[in-house]
């Protein structure tokens, strides 16, 4: 099945997904300690009957009995060699049960081991494990892949990448949240949605977690920030022990009572997780019969995410900056620590920048002396920084191998800083962004360097944007940097940077990023010049400055610009800050006066 | 004769103007103490013969024997009632002598008394005196009026206004310079040219003064800054006493030796003053036979002038600011001094602003309490300020009567601050600007207030520009102010001001002025917000901020912006300033350290 086909259905109807398999399996004779997925091989008819009940209940997507059918989990039952057989069979049973008009989703759950550095699992191992299962499911005939009950966003990412590699079917991915509305490893609904959207899943959402009441909030938060259709599969309320057995407290009718609210919160596909039965799904299906999905939000804001936090970049929101200080060039103590393979210093630099106000942290591990491999330094740097701060990162390298290595360990949706108008770089970086779910930063230069005219610089920006859009990267994930030259040595071309920036913003409809500090390189009193240039660049349409967050003057500019561009409504934030500043100056003066008495 | 006809001739040829009349008159029997112009009545034939000699020498413009034929000068000879007769007769004689192809200029010299406050002459008295003479000359049949040997720019202004009122012939005006290349009352060649150009004379230049060698420099300086054709009438070198008689040291051939250099310096009309004879002019005419004028400069820079200094406003030059502090609203000590008719405080405020770096001073004498007439305060304010500083002024009032009263006493080319899109204001202010030689500032509002959209604000700007251009005001004398609203109370419309400004600058091709300080009205820590807004406005295309020059932060922005927009080549000025600043901070720190030891 193609994604477009699924999307056409989702426009017209709320699809009812099936409910729990586990409870039904126990009723069908699954013993404790037995492998549930092995039943595909030995109890085909039982599985078929469970599927049929859901189909008859009115479900329009049923999923294969393959939740734990990956090599690592099956190996616990000594069934590592049955991966293909179990998944293929699971697909075949469901296919047969589905009949006309009902879709089959190949179910994939977590591997059950944590990824490095939290656990023993490497990117490659996880990838191959998911790939193998997905391939078997797809070749077995499923219409789509459903990656579910994910509690680690990094694992979900790898599963999505692998599933998409395995075949051309829509991939759905749902995360499981805890009561604090974060996943076990700390991802909130917006961040999950941002990351999964960037990976271009067909549908994203949440499953398991809790009952439908709390799911409403998760859905609403996702709906607000993503264009993707949403799926929700709540449990049948809260678990309770009745006669030593775990039951759930919502009856089919009670659960169905939430159905329209879930639709109103943005759900396109509604199923059930733990405790739900064909009865629950039948009640749901009846309630939602003829129900249409609500209109999708028009989302134009840009999003960058760490594993646990999303930064929104939008004309209506206060400016964010990218802290530029993790850069080995000219920073001896950073360089030395990297040489000594001590990344605490790098992590601390990230923390200090966040404390100073940076919302996004650039990580540049470019080293020219050949004593440290950039790739090793970058991977270690990214890991150290993402452990230390929850700010999204900008992976700053022109080397695409280094970039890919960083992408494999990064948990969030980073900025790829950078590509440019050179075909080779452009195609490879776009490919990485699509594959790993990242935003890209395109510099207006190519193999010939920076063009001498605004027109030619703009043309390169246009080329980058067109190429990325054609490859399927949404405009909000494309940023252009029109390259700040130094006012000292290249004064003549300084205005061109802002002229090009303005055109890019106005004519190409993408957002802009600019390294600002370079403007004052080599001049005395850099602060004033940099601050003035920053203000001018913001007026020209700069969205995100890359800058030194420790410099107080830039904050005065940013806070002012927030007021002047309507990003700080009623100047509330400015007034708060200004009043503190005025107060601080006053008490400083009084202190000086007292001392001089 | 129409100006266009004169211009057509000036495109094709260098016009030879005649030489001295005085020396020739003495040779024709003029006695010491006799009125030279009375000879028109009693020695018609002698005057005719002098003219003929110049015509036969090859002159293509001869001027009437009416240099001192104004009521005030003639009154010294008891001939006040002969003004019309002497001028009319002078015109008739010259006309008869000129024949075909030679033009007759009605000669008008200074009144011989100083204008108030330097002397007893009022604007009205001077105006009527010049008007009467010019009227008689024009009715007597001259082709054009030549106002010459002016050493006070204010008197020249009044003469030009009166001559233009008297009839529709081209008006030429030449100033006389001293060895320091300033007129007796301090006007330099650029400033003379700027003021006379704004008065829309047909041709401007210099006469008398000194020999042709020093005239070259005067011409060159005028040529660089004005689009007007230039006239030069040097003396025949330096005066010397030979046998008790004043002679001049350049022979006709020596004088003619400078002819081509004068043309190369920009002269379109070349004549002679003291010591020149038909012989000199014949040599000139021969040398310049077939010579063509050099191409006119394309002048696009804006100019505002006091009587002694011109400020140039151009994208290639450092930013100028208009000091906003002479404004009675909310400034109690200024208000009180004006009430007490003590304008020293106003004058001092002007000086302080110039010391702080303001290049142009705004004078606003708007008082709401009715105790002082705005017109009186404005006239006294303008007189006090123009005596105290040489910065050009911005006459800040919406009352056109007050504006005209100020224009009558102002010696330079001011900015009329302001008009707007309302027809009544627009037509009257444009009329005043044309008449008195001023630049105008048009605000993008009308009787309905400030429009709510960028489009409508821009439309008002366009209306103002079109109306002014149609009335003959050159674009460089039209400024638009798109009106800064307060970020505190009108945040929503703040971006519109800069959007409109940018469109005005880009699409209408006029320069922009903006009151900047209003942005932070009512907010705490106004400095940072104002400074950031200033930088953003400069990027949006602001040419001249109206601002508080005492605020240090704005200078950091202006100096930075000069670097960033290429107005401070190689950042030389910035580096000088920044080095001083860094040095000052260092020694301050050391002082603090020493004290704390
Ligand atoms: Zn569950
Ligand atoms: Zn003379
Ligand atoms: Zn003369």
In short:
By secondary structure, chain A is α/β, with parallel strands linked by helices.
Q: What is the secondary structure topology, with strand pairs?
A:
The structure is a homodimer of 597-residue chains.
Chain A: H1 3-12, E1 15-16, H2 22-27, H3 39-42, H4 44-57, E2 61-63, H5 71-75, H6 83-98, E3 103-108, H7 123-139, E4 144-150, H8 153-166, E5 171-175, H9 189-198, E6 203-208, H10 212-225, E7 230-234, E8 239-242, E9 245-248, H11 252-256, H12 259-264, E10 267-270, H13 278-287, E11 302-305, E12 310-313, E13 322-327, H14 332-339, H15 344-356, E14 360-364, H16 374-388, E15 393-396, H17 400-409, E16 415-420, H18 423-436, E17 439-443, H19 454-470, E18 478-481, H20 494-508, E19 511-515, H21 526-540, E20 544-547, H22 552-564, H23 572-596
Parallel strand pairs in A: 1-10, 2-3, 3-4, 4-5, 5-6, 6-7, 7-10, 13-14, 13-20, 14-15, 15-16, 16-17, 17-18, 18-19, 19-20
Antiparallel strand pairs in A: 8-9, 11-12
The complex binds zinc ion (3 copies).
């Amino acid at each position: 099945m193609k994604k477009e086909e699924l999307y056409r259905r989702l426009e017209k109807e709320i699809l009812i997904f099936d409910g729990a398999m586990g409870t039904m399996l126990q009723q069908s004779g699954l013993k404790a300690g037995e492998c549930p997925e092995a039943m595909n091989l030995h109890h085909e008819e039982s599985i078929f009957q469970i599927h049929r009940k859901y189909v008859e209940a009115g479900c329009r997507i049923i999923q294969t009995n393959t939740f734990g059918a990956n090599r690592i989990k099956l190996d616990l039952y000594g069934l590592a060699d049955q991966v293909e057989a179990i998944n293929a069979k699971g697909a075949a049973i469901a296919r047969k049960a589905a009949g006309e008009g009902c879709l089959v989703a190949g179910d994939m759950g977590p591997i059950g081991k944590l990824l490095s550095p939290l656990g023993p699992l490497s990117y490659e191992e996880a990838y191959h494990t998911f790939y193998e299962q997905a391939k078997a499911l797809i070749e077995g005939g499923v219409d789509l892949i459903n990656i579910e009950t994910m509690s680690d966003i990094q694992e979900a990412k790898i599963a999505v990448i692998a599933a998409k590699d395995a075949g051309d079917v829509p991939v759905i991915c749902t995360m499981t949240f805890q009561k604090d509305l974060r996943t076990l490893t700390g991802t909130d609904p917006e961040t999950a949605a941002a990351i999964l959207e960037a990976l271009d899943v067909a549908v994203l959402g949440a499953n398991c977690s809790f009952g439908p009441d709390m799911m409403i909030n998760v859905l609403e938060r996702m709906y607000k920030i993503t264009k993707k259709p949403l799926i929700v599969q709540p449990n049948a309320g809260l678990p309770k022990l009745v006669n030593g057995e775990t039951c759930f407290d919502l009856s089919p009718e009670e659960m169905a009572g939430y159905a329209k609210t879930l639709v109103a919160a943005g759900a396109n596909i509604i199923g059930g997780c733990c405790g739900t039965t064909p009865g629950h799904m039948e009640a749901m299906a009846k309630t939602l019969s003829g129900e249409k999905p609500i209109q999708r939000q028009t989302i134009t804001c840009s999003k960058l995410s760490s594993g646990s936090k999303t930064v929104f970049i939008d004309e209506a929101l206060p400016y964010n900056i990218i802290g530029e200080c993790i850069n080995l060039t000219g920073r001896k103590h950073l360089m030395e620590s990297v040489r000594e393979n001590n990344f605490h210093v790098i992590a601390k630099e990230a923390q200090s920048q966040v404390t100073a106000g940076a919302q996004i942290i650039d990580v540049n591990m470019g080293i020219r002396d050949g004593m440290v491999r950039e790739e090793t330094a970058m991977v270690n740097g990214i890991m150290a920084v993402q452990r230390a701060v929850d700010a999204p990162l900008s992976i700053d390298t022109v080397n695409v191998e280094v970039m890919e290595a960083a992408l494999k360990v990064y948990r969030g949706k980073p900025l790829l800083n950078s590509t440019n108008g050179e075909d080779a770089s452009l195609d490879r970086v776009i490919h990485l962004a699509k594959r790993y779910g990242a935003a890209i930063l395109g510099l207006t230069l190519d193999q010939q360097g920076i063009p001498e005219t605004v027109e030619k610089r703009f043309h390169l920006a246009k080329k980058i944007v067109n190429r990325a859009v054609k490859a399927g990267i949404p405009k909000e994930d494309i940023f252009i940097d029109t390259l700040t030259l130094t006012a000292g040595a290249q004064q003549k071309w300084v205005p061109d940077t802002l002229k090009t920036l303005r055109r890019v913003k106005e004519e190409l409809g993408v957002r802009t990023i600019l390294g600002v500090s370079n403007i004052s390189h080599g001049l005395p009193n850099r602060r004033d010049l940099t601050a003035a240039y920053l203000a001018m660049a913001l007026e020209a349409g700069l969205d995100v400055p890359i800058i030194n967050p420790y410099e107080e003057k830039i904050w005065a500019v940013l806070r002012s610009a927030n007021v002047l561009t309507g990003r700080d409504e009623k100047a509330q934030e400015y007034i708060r800050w200004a009043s503190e500043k005025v107060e601080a100056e006053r008490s400083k003066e009084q202190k000086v006066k007292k001392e001089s008495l």
